[in-house]
Design goal:
This protein is of the alpha+beta class and 1061 residues long. The chain is built from 32 helices and 36 strands. A hairpin with a 5-residue loop joins strand 13 and strand 14. Helix 5 packs antiparallel against helix 13, helix 21 crosses helix 22 and helix 24 runs parallel beside helix 26. The longest helix is centred in the last third of the chain and has 29 residues. It is elongated, with a radius of gyration of 40 Å. The two termini are 28 Å apart.
Length: 1061
């Protein structure tokens, strides 16, 4: 097919309307190879015809004014109870009874996206925004699909972070008071420490204050939910439920008390769960040491067999007092707690000698590495072993060595496990069962078991059990480490230190204090994961994980984790309901009756578990134990439950045991809330608490760096919404633009945000808003009841765009259902820009503006706009709820009392979220799809040539142009079928007339006599091989007489000469 662009005639035509014509507000410049006629007559002053044009009319603002408008819309939602437990029902296509008696509408299917509670501590950050807005996309889409959406926002209220905040506040108050007293010269004794009950009440107030601030922020994001009835883990009802889960787990045999190493925070003085640890980027520098433990004897096996060569060699070296076991450790402070050295029986070991006669045992593969590190100018180790043997042979010798810091004490060489490798160290592992889980497990396998000995107190300092006594009171992570290294390196300590060096490695820190933790053995309460591990792994397989990699990640965490330490040594939390024998702390009182009694008391108390600290044992124990309590036999415990146990039982405290349709949180929750919820649910009732789990990544700055106050790259979501102090630099974009950013990124990985990204996002938002405004404005006089044109009577162009609408809605619906929100945005922007703005709406202007108001060509276009606006608005509603609601409140053919005044709406006006997804608009068939694709290709070719003509100042408006299209017979038939052409001098105004589609003043098809020549023909042409459409386009020659014919029927014309050259 060939298409020719106009040749520009040497006169300008201005058209004015007669009584029977329509306004054409354009200038048309045309040229011909003929000479211009006589000079044009003087042009009279034209009358004002603006009142005869159907201009758009709407109160929908061009600017969002989100700072004002969004809160108004949110007030409207609140006034009709949207999202609350008493919200008006939506329409349900499939009535399904609900098991929950408190549901709003028992005829609708339920959807429960259970909210993972953020911590009630401080303002929200951009990660909170990403999380809550993603949840809101899903919930709002489910509302439109007719579900009874259950979404109660929640808050995690107990635990160390709030307790620390309270203690910091108290400390600041005390300092301020002391300073004031100093100025007044008033001696005042130091204040007493804050008692647990007083601390708990201040902590509760702090949590409530933080929840109030965070709740308002979440609501400002436009989150759909029951914010009038949130759940809080500190309420008596929730605490009762949590204690009930503890009871079930205990009765199932999955809760026990034991003493084993746990992650301990000296800075917080409490045990920590794995999820409460963080590992700093850049690692942690430790003072690692190579140490030689002196072997004192080899007891061997009690057999009559002659000694082996190895046994003979070892006994000789022991007699010479030269044999040592080489160990390497990054925690020198644990050497006083050493109870054994472990080797891997399947590895090969060697004995090497030094120039001073000392002998050392290490793994054969590590001989060269160890020798290179520990050799010195005064003592050189040989790299040629004097003996090599299997590890099992060495353990068979019954090696006994002197303790490194308490030489009077003897310890043994033991056979360890596969955790002993030759990747680092010496192949021999210093074993302190009180400070390492592998060490503890190895110790428990011995007969008798090695005790979990830990000479370290709650503050992380050596206690009275440490030897030598000079270590007492020294912090193990500071001066204690230095003292131990000094000791083993001195002559008094036996010169055991072979080498010290700094070592960088992954190391756990307290997530709140940002200080290093230690492994320390203390009596704690544990959940025995080992007892139900297989059941938990099977439960994971029943869950739909999004993305699918989450399943393997979760299984890996559960498969490899140890027992869960659920006790904390803090006051602000739910107490572990146990009682200890005052004469023997190993004797513990806890059973179904005692727990039920506590649950009953907590439910009756205004402040819930505060009762544990208010009452004594006499009242806290059931009646049958009253006499023993009066006699002082029992002492209530002081430990509280891990906050992950708090939030991990929300499936019981909030959902009443109902399985949630979805949990949605960051990917770090595979080892946090997802896992604690799974473990408590499986342990107590045998099922997972969720059907689906969706995870998202973290938010980085625009350059992909982690946000940090020190770097100054922290993005505050409220600054995006409300703007910064300088609105020119930090404009107020509103919540919808923030939400559009969330929808635009691939949340399955880490995402970036910054000023440049938000500016681009705002442009996408503005484009969609402007398109909606254009459609609203052109529907101001349209009444669907009387003006809608039946589908069968619509022209091909209108049927085509409705087919595109249906395809778009189906793709968007599918993307929503698969949680691909960036695909939703991409699909909608493509439809809005390419199909609507750049094509359909562009060529619809004449039909809308200059047609008779009630003409078929105008009403058919308005019919399309009404359908497109309905579908487009509901498609964007889950992502841009404020924009969608604003459009909904400005649809002119929906009558209500006070349009556009939100505070007065409500009277006969429904929210868009009380309607349903426009599935009826998904049923339009494709219409002439291939044909319209070809038309659009031709239009692209014409527009490219028009742009070239504009650059050369040959044309201004596209209506300055005529085109001659040279095409194949099949393409000619296509064009003639879709349009009626000006072949007899009569202007046809069919909606499919291709001159309207191309926005030209005229079109010729395969007219060899109408081709221009000269400069215009040479410059403004494209061949069939070069064009997008396969058509050739050349300038069209049109003489003045033809032009007058073309503009007949009441058109008055005046000409100004302007040559093409």
């Amino acid at each position: 097919m060939a298409v020719k662009l106009i040749n520009v005639l040497p006169f300008t035509i201005r058209s004015i309307r007669s009584t029977s014509s329509k306004v054409i507000s354009s200038s048309i410049s045309l040229s011909s190879s003929s000479n211009p006629a006589s000079p044009p007559p003087k042009e009279p002053s034209p009358p004002d015809w603006s009142s005869t044009i159907n201009l758009p009319v709407t109160e929908f603002s061009l600017r969002a004014n989100a700072v004002v408008r969004e809160p108004e819309i949110q007030a409207f939602w609140k006034s009709i109870g949207l999202g609350s437990s008493n919200a008006p029902p939506t329409t349900s296509p499939t009535p399904i009874p609900t098991p929950n008696k408190n549901s709003v509408d028992v005829t609708r299917p339920r959807w429960i996206l259970h909210d993972g509670p953020p911590y009630a501590n401080g303002p929200l950050h951009i990660g909170h925004s990403l999380n809550k807005i993603l949840k809101d996309f899903i919930n709002r889409q489910k509302v439109l699909q007719g579900y009874d959406v259950v979404y109660r926002p929640g808050w995690d209220c107990h635990g160390l972070p709030i307790e620390l905040k309270v203690l910091q506040e108290v400390e600041a108050e005390n300092k301020k008071r002391a300073k004031q007293n100093m100025k007044a010269h008033t001696p005042v004794p130091p204040p007493p420490p804050l008692l647990p009950l007083a601390l708990r009440r201040r902590a509760a107030e702090f949590a409530d204050s933080a929840i109030s601030v965070q709740s308002l922020s979440f609501q400002r994001y436009g989150i759909y939910g029951d914010f009038e009835n949130p759940y809080k883990t500190k309420t008596p009802m929730y605490e009762q439920s949590q204690l009930g889960v503890f009871k079930s787990m205990f009765l199932n045999g999955n809760i026990y008390r034991g003493e084993k190493p746990v992650n301990w925070s000296p800075s917080s003085r409490t045990a920590l769960a794995e999820a409460e640890l963080e590992y700093p980027e850049g690692g942690h520098w430790s003072r690692s040491v190579y140490v030689g433990f002196n072997v004192v004897r080899a007891e061997g096996k009690n057999t009559e067999a002659p000694p082996t060569k190895l046994e003979t060699l070892v006994n000789r070296l022991i007699e010479e007092k030269t044999l040592q076991l080489a160990i390497w450790t990054t925690t020198a402070w644990t050497l006083p707690a050493n109870l054994a050295v472990a080797i891997n029986p399947s590895l090969s070991y060697s004995i090497v000698e030094t120039t001073l006669g000392r002998s050392l045992i290490c793994a054969t593969e590590l001989v060269q590495t160890v020798v290179d590190k520990i050799s010195s100018d005064t003592e050189i180790y040989s790299q040629l072993p004097i003996a090599t043997f299997e590890g099992k042979q060495l353990t068979d010798l019954g090696i006994v060595y002197a303790h490194p810091t308490d030489p009077a004490k003897e310890c043994r060489l033991l056979a360890g496990g596969d955790y002993i490798t030759t990747e680092t160290g010496t192949g021999l592992v210093h074993t302190a069962p009180g400070h390492g889980l592998d060490d503890y497990l190895l110790g428990q396998k011995q007969s008798p078991p090695l005790p979990p000995f830990s000479p370290v107190d709650d503050a992380g300092k050596f206690n009275e059990l440490a030897e030598p006594k000079s270590l007492l009171g020294l912090p193990v992570l500071g001066a204690g480490t230095e003292a131990v290294i000094q000791l083993i390196g001195s002559s008094e300590g036996g010169n055991l230190l072979l080498r010290e060096e700094k070592y960088n490695h992954k190391y756990p820190y307290d997530w709140r204090t940002k200080k290093p933790t230690i492994f320390r053995s203390t009596p704690q309460w544990f959940c025995s994961v080992e007892k139900f591990r297989d059941q938990a792994l099977n439960a994971i397989s029943k869950v739909d994980w999004i993305p699918i990699a989450g399943e393997n990640r979760m299984k890996s965490f559960v498969q490899n984790r140890g027992d869960w330490c659920i006790s904390r040594q803090r006051s602000w939390g739910v107490p572990i309901p146990v009682f200890y024998d005052t004469e023997n702390a190993q004797n513990v009182m806890v059973n179904e009756k005692t727990i039920d009694h506590i649950i009953n008391i907590v439910g009756k108390h205004e402040n819930g578990t505060d009762v544990w600290w208010e009452l004594d044992e006499v009242d806290l124990l059931p009646e049958e134990y009253r006499e023993e309590a009066l006699a002082g036999k029992w002492r209530k415990g002081v430990d509280t439950m891990d906050v992950w146990f708090d939030s991990g039982t929300s499936w019981s405290g909030v959902l009443n045991g109902e399985i949630a349709d979805m949990y949605l949180e960051g990917s770090d929750q595979h080892r946090g809330w997802f896992q604690s919820s799974l473990l408590t649910s499986v342990s107590s009732r045998g099922n997972p608490p969720y059907k689906k789990v969706l995870t998202h990544g973290f938010v980085l700055d625009e350059k992909g760096y982690k946000m940090s106050k020190s770097l100054g790259n922290v993005v505050d979501p409220m600054t995006i919404i409300a703007g910064g102090s300088n609105k020119k630099i930090k404009p107020a974009y509103g919540a919808d633009v923030l939400r559009l950013w969330v929808a635009s990124v691939d949340y399955t990985g880490d995402v970036c945000i910054g000023d440049g990204i938000m500016k681009q996002t705002f442009e996408s938002y503005r484009r969609m808003r402007n398109i909606a405004r254009y459609m609203l404005g052109n529907l101001h006089d349209f009444n669907p009841t009387t003006d809608e044109v039946p589908y069968a009577n619509l022209p091909s162009l209108d049927k085509w765009i409705l087919g595109r609408l249906s395809k778009t809605l189906l793709e968007v619906d599918d993307a929503y259902n698969s949680y691909q929100f960036n695909k939703v945005v991409g699909t909608l922007l493509k439809f809005a820009t390419a199909d609507l703005s750049n094509f359909y709406l562009d060529i619809a202007k004449d039909r809308l503006y200059i047609s008779e108001p009630n003409s078929l060509r105008r009403r058919s276009c308005q019919t399309v706009l009404a359908h497109v606006l309905d579908g487009f608005t509901k498609a964007i509603a889950p992502i841009l709820p404020h924009l969608a609601e604003d459009i909904n409140l400005n649809v002119p053919f929906i009558k209500f009392d006070t349009r556009n005044k939100i505070e007065q709406v409500g009277k006969g006006r429904q929210s868009i979220f009380q309607d349903k997804w426009p599935s009826h608009l998904e049923k339009f068939q494709k219409c002439d799809a291939m044909e319209w694709a070809k038309i659009r290709e031709i239009r692209t070719d014409i527009n490219q040539l028009l742009e070239l003509a504009r650059v050369n100042k040959i044309v201004g408006s596209s209506l300055d142009a005529f085109a001659n299209i040279q095409c194949s017979e099949s393409d000619e038939e296509l064009l003639r079928r879709l349009g009626t052409f000006n072949t007899a001098g009569e202007v046809e105004e069919g909606e499919d007339n291709v001159r309207y589609i191309f926005l030209l003043s005229g079109v010729k098809i395969n007219d060899p006599d109408n081709s221009a020549s000269g400069k215009c023909a040479d410059t403004f042409s494209v061949s069939s091989s070069e064009s997008t459409s396969g058509c050739a386009i050349k300038p069209s020659s049109l003489v003045a007489a033809d032009l007058k014919k073309h503009l007949s029927n009441g058109m008055q014309t005046m000409f100004n000469v302007r040559p093409c050259a």
